[in-house]
Design brief:
There is one protein chain. By secondary structure, the protein is mainly alpha-helical. The protein is built from 4 helices and no strands. Helix 2 packs antiparallel against helix 4. The radius of gyration is 23 Å and the shape is elongated.
Amino acid sequence: MGDYSRLAALLGAHHQVAFFRRFATLNTKNLLYLQSELIHLEGELSNIALEDQTSTDPEKSLFHVSLFELKNSDPAKSLQWQKVLEARKKLK
Protein backbone atom coordinates (compact mmCIF):
# COMPACT_ATOMS: atom_id res chain seq x y z
CA MET A 1 0.00 0.00 0.00
CA GLY A 2 2.27 2.74 -1.20
CA ASP A 3 0.09 5.35 -2.85
CA TYR A 4 -3.03 7.46 -2.37
CA SER A 5 -4.98 5.70 -5.12
CA ARG A 6 -4.66 2.31 -3.47
CA LEU A 7 -5.39 3.74 -0.02
CA ALA A 8 -8.45 5.55 -1.40
CA ALA A 9 -9.69 2.35 -3.02
CA LEU A 10 -9.28 0.44 0.24
CA LEU A 11 -11.01 3.12 2.33
CA GLY A 12 -13.74 3.49 -0.31
CA ALA A 13 -14.46 -0.22 -0.15
CA HIS A 14 -14.40 -0.24 3.65
CA HIS A 15 -15.71 3.23 4.57
CA GLN A 16 -16.30 2.18 8.19
CA VAL A 17 -12.51 2.25 8.72
CA ALA A 18 -11.96 5.57 6.97
CA PHE A 19 -10.32 8.17 9.15
CA PHE A 20 -9.74 11.84 8.52
CA ARG A 21 -8.42 14.67 10.61
CA ARG A 22 -10.86 17.46 11.30
CA PHE A 23 -8.20 20.17 11.71
CA ALA A 24 -10.36 21.70 14.44
CA THR A 25 -7.69 24.09 15.69
CA LEU A 26 -6.82 25.30 12.21
CA ASN A 27 -10.50 25.69 11.25
CA THR A 28 -11.22 27.58 14.45
CA LYS A 29 -8.27 29.89 13.89
CA ASN A 30 -9.43 30.52 10.34
CA LEU A 31 -12.94 31.39 11.56
CA LEU A 32 -11.52 33.80 14.14
CA TYR A 33 -9.43 35.53 11.45
CA LEU A 34 -12.46 35.72 9.14
CA GLN A 35 -14.58 37.12 11.95
CA SER A 36 -11.96 39.78 12.64
CA GLU A 37 -11.82 40.74 8.97
CA LEU A 38 -15.62 41.00 8.82
CA ILE A 39 -15.74 43.15 11.95
CA HIS A 40 -13.20 45.50 10.35
CA LEU A 41 -15.17 45.61 7.07
CA GLU A 42 -18.40 46.24 8.99
CA GLY A 43 -16.83 49.22 10.74
CA GLU A 44 -15.49 50.63 7.48
CA LEU A 45 -18.89 50.19 5.84
CA SER A 46 -20.64 51.96 8.71
CA ASN A 47 -18.24 54.91 8.48
CA ILE A 48 -18.62 55.16 4.71
CA ALA A 49 -22.43 54.93 4.95
CA LEU A 50 -22.50 57.73 7.52
CA GLU A 51 -20.26 59.91 5.33
CA ASP A 52 -22.51 59.24 2.33
CA GLN A 53 -25.69 59.96 4.30
CA THR A 54 -24.40 63.35 5.44
CA SER A 55 -22.78 64.20 2.12
CA THR A 56 -23.64 67.37 0.23
CA ASP A 57 -23.54 65.29 -2.96
CA PRO A 58 -27.23 64.66 -3.78
CA GLU A 59 -26.51 61.24 -5.28
CA LYS A 60 -24.53 59.98 -2.27
CA SER A 61 -27.10 61.29 0.18
CA LEU A 62 -29.67 58.90 -1.37
CA PHE A 63 -27.55 55.77 -0.93
CA HIS A 64 -29.00 54.98 2.51
CA VAL A 65 -32.57 54.83 1.14
CA SER A 66 -32.07 53.63 -2.44
CA LEU A 67 -30.23 50.47 -3.33
CA PHE A 68 -30.80 51.37 -6.98
CA GLU A 69 -28.89 54.64 -6.55
CA LEU A 70 -26.14 52.90 -4.59
CA LYS A 71 -25.62 50.07 -7.10
CA ASN A 72 -25.93 52.22 -10.22
CA SER A 73 -23.85 55.19 -9.16
CA ASP A 74 -20.52 56.21 -10.61
CA PRO A 75 -17.98 53.66 -9.28
CA ALA A 76 -15.74 56.54 -8.20
CA LYS A 77 -18.52 57.72 -5.85
CA SER A 78 -19.68 54.31 -4.73
CA LEU A 79 -17.08 53.27 -2.17
CA GLN A 80 -19.98 52.04 -0.02
CA TRP A 81 -21.15 49.55 -2.65
CA GLN A 82 -17.57 48.38 -3.27
CA LYS A 83 -17.22 47.72 0.47
CA VAL A 84 -20.52 45.78 0.48
CA LEU A 85 -19.22 43.58 -2.33
CA GLU A 86 -15.91 43.08 -0.49
CA ALA A 87 -17.78 41.94 2.63
CA ARG A 88 -20.04 39.71 0.56
CA LYS A 89 -17.03 37.85 -0.83
CA LYS A 90 -15.78 37.21 2.70
CA LEU A 91 -19.20 35.95 3.79
CA LYS A 92 -19.30 33.25 1.11
